[in-house]
Design a protein that fits this description.
The chain is 55% helix and 15% strand. It is an alpha+beta fold. Strands 3-4-2-1-5 form a 5-stranded mixed beta sheet, sandwiched between helices. It has a two-stranded antiparallel ribbon with strand order 6-7. β6 and β7 form a beta hairpin.
């Protein structure tokens, strides 16, 4: 892919990230395995590094073998949680790992998955790459995600409307299709953080994706014929993401520490991560939940606890 859209996406990917984020990405990277690491999500939008930072770690090839490799090929990505000391503070990261080729295929819309192109049409920074070719391949894949998302936006949006109308239709549909805790109102938050950006990239992406449309100003009118259908991605969304959640219950590396952090952040109650809970988070979950409920009741009964 070449042209104005590719140049714009490359410039976005090269936008300097905070030094702490870059240092964290370097700590996460395995130069012998990884092609590139992408930083995205709510902390990129807000700049608040006190929460959990979201990364996609794109590998040169599948990194699992046997049964685990088969599961990885079908129910990607692999998910892990990390706490890393950077510059005198602890940064927390949730890392999704999958081969760059798989990421590219999903970004191009060649699977029923919506998660890759729906996320990576949003602002992203390339915070680590193994070499120039890996960097270029990652840029090309992200650009493909933008084009795919724009085609679905044309299909799902109104017959005529502002760029915002098409993107809001897309984000509301994709959030609704996934099995997520966020409401479809998250679409408004995403748009509010970069409305001018989305307005600028829509016509560029439509041209790159072969979408015929009229209008360059406030009102755009795409020709709907030939656009991708939504029925199958919509039907597959929740079952696919539920399967990923069930898989993560058994394979999420660092799940116990991740859950303990989320519990403390939302309730103020610290749940100890014992060796058993670290090794067997799924089996340990009922006991941890009982402990949390007991301590919540105790704190309510004792106002002096300050919680």
């Amino acid at each position: 892919m070449s042209g104005e859209l590719a140049r714009r996406i490359e410039a976005e990917l090269l936008t300097p990230a905070p030094e702490a984020v870059v240092a964290l990405a370097r700590a996460l990277a395995d130069p012998g395995v990884d092609a590139a690491i992408l930083y995205y999500g709510s902390t990129l939008r807000t700049g608040d590094l006190s929460g959990i930072l979201d990364f996609y770690r794109l590998t040169r090839r599948p990194h699992r073998r046997g049964l685990h490799g088969l599961v990885e090929r079908v129910l990607w990505p692999e998910v892990s949680y990390h706490e890393v000391a950077v510059g005198g503070r602890v940064l927390r990261a949730k890392v999704a790992t999958l081969p760059l080729a798989t990421f590219r295929r999903a970004a191009e819309g060649r699977t029923l998955d919506t998660t890759i192109w729906a996320r990576f049409v949003q602002p992203t920074q390339r915070v680590w790459s193994a070499d120039a070719k890996a960097a270029a391949d990652a840029t090309s894949a992200v650009s493909a995600a933008v084009v795919t998302a724009s085609r679905y936006a044309a299909a799902l949006g109104p017959d005529a409307g502002a760029a915002e109308d098409f993107w809001l239709a897309l984000f509301r549909k994709t959030y609704a299709a996934e099995f997520r805790v966020e409401s479809t109102d998250r679409a408004d938050t995403v748009m509010a953080s970069g409305a001018d950006r989305y307005a600028a990239i829509l016509p560029l992406a439509w041209r790159e994706g072969g979408v015929v449309f009229d209008g360059e100003g406030a009102v755009l009118r795409p020709v709907k014929q030939g656009l991708p259908g939504w029925t199958w991605p919509d039907l597959a969304g929740k079952p696919l993401n539920m399967a990923r959640i069930l898989k993560a219950a058994f394979t999420f590396d660092g799940a116990a520490r991740y859950a303990a952090y989320k519990v403390e952040r939302h309730t103020g109650i610290e749940i100890a991560v014992t060796p058993f809970r670290e090794r067997h988070p799924f089996l340990a979950a009922p006991g941890a939940w009982i402990e949390l409920r007991r301590r919540q009741r105790a704190s309510r009964a004792d106002p002096s606890s300050g919680r």
